[in-house]
């Protein structure tokens, strides 16, 4: 376990006596597990790589420990393991380790390694995270969690969320010269409907040590979605500046959008689809772009298991060539 991760656990442990002072509710601990796994055939056109062929991937294996001290104070620790095709298992990451103070329904303050505002809601609104991460997470235009101070305030139809973090993320935590900030505002004008906007600004801890800072990374997001009893539909857009050029000369912009839809035919079966287009170098290499397509059918036999037959297609265009990859197989989520 890395030093920042041990420090976050130690900080949370030091806060336990403070949390235990309140006597509102009996302490309670809940342990849960969530596993994302798939067996699929991956083929790439025009290029040969080690990850091609039929293989099994352990996309994610989470163990969550939630402890409630009382009605106001709680703590969460989540471990994360990944084992992708033809590779070694990842380190055992500390995905979450935070202390939370609640201030009523939908309002709280978290200290430690906690989810960032945008990607968490991105996954919740689309609803099929176990098949693939959403637009921002899949393209690595943001981190799912980071060390810092996180807050959310809910009032009526509006939800405000913000995080002041290291910028290094939870997998390889490190400190830059200044804190990064991510914020999100969501408005729910009708049942199931959400309109959201947000952004990120910072150096992503890439200016650590003596590395010079040439630019500040910025990202702006917008999302509109509807979640009903049987269906989901939504779209999101991002525009970023200098996301990967913080310590490199020459400015560059990125942008992309995603649209998704799903419909539950019966309580056990659902159809879902998703389409994305991204351009990750609008200024330096404007011909570079990617198109992502996903189509699947899900079977949900009970509350613990979700199975999906999925087909994916990714087209990547560069100045010199166009590459396509096709993947099809079975994806599963186990939760207990």
Please give a quick description of this structure.
The protein is mainly beta and 336 residues long.
How are the secondary structure elements laid out?
Layout: H1 3-19, E1 28-45, E2 53-68, E3 73-83, E4 93-102, E5 108-115, H2 117-126, H3 135-138, E6 145-155, E7 158-167, E8 175-187, E9 193-202, E10 217-227, E11 231-241, E12 253-264, E13 269-279, E14 289-299, E15 305-317, E16 322-335
Protein name: Porin
Signal peptide: 1-22
InterPro entries: Porin_dom_sf
Your description of this structure?
The protein has 336 residues and is mostly beta strands. The chain has one domain: Porin (Beta Barrel). Helix content is 9%, strand content 57%. The protein is built from three helices and 16 strands. Strands 1-2-3-4-5-6-7-8-9-10-11-12-13-14-15-16 form a 16-stranded antiparallel beta barrel. It is globular and about 60 Å long. The N terminus is likely disordered.
Number of beta strands = 16
Amount of helix = under 10%
User: Into which percentage range does the β-strand content fall?
Assistant: over 45%
The string of secondary-structure elements, in order, is HEEEEEHHEEEEEEEEEEE
* Structural class by secondary-structure content: mainly beta
Protein name: Porin
Signal peptide: 1-22
Keywords: Signal
InterPro entries: Porin_dom_sf
What attributes characterize this protein structure?
336 residues, mainly beta, Porin, 16-stranded antiparallel beta barrel, Porin_dom_sf, signal
């Amino acid at each position: 376990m890395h030093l920042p991760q041990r420090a976050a656990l130690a900080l949370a442990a030091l806060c336990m006596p403070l949390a235990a002072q309140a006597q509102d509710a009996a302490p309670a601990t809940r342990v849960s597990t969530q596993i994302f796994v798939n067996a699929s055939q991956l083929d790439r056109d025009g290029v040969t790589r080690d990850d091609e062929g039929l293989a099994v991937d352990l996309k994610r294996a989470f163990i969550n420990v939630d402890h409630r001290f009382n009605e106001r104070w709680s703590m969460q620790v989540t471990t994360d393991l990944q084992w992708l095709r033809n590779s070694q298992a990842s380190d055992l990451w500390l995905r979450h380790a935070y202390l939370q103070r609640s201030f009523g329904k939908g309002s709280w303050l978290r200290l430690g390694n906690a989810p960032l505002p945008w990607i968490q809601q991105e996954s919740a609104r689309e609803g099929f995270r176990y098949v693939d991460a959403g637009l921002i997470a899949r393209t690595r235009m943001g981190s799912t969690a980071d060390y810092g101070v996180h807050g959310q305030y809910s009032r009526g139809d509006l939800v405000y969320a913000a995080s002041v973090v290291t910028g290094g993320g939870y997998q390889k935590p490190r400190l830059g010269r200044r804190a990064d900030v991510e914020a999100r505002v969501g408005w729910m004008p009708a049942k199931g409907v959400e309109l959201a906007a947000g952004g990120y600004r910072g150096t992503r801890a890439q200016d650590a040590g003596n590395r010079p800072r040439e630019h500040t990374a910025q990202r702006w997001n917008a999302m509109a979605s509807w979640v009903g009893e049987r269906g989901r539909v939504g779209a999101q857009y991002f525009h970023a500046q200098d996301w990967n050029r913080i310590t490199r000369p020459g400015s560059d912009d990125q942008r992309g959008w995603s649209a998704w839809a799903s419909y539950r035919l019966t309580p056990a079966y659902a159809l879902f689809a998703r389409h994305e287009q991204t351009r990750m170098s609008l200024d330096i290499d404007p011909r570079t772009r990617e198109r992502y397509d996903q189509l699947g059918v899900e079977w949900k036999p009970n509350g613990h298991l979700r199975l999906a037959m999925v087909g994916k297609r990714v087209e990547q265009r560069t100045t010199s060539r166009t590459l396509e990859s096709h993947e099809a197989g079975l994806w599963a989520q186990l939760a207990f």
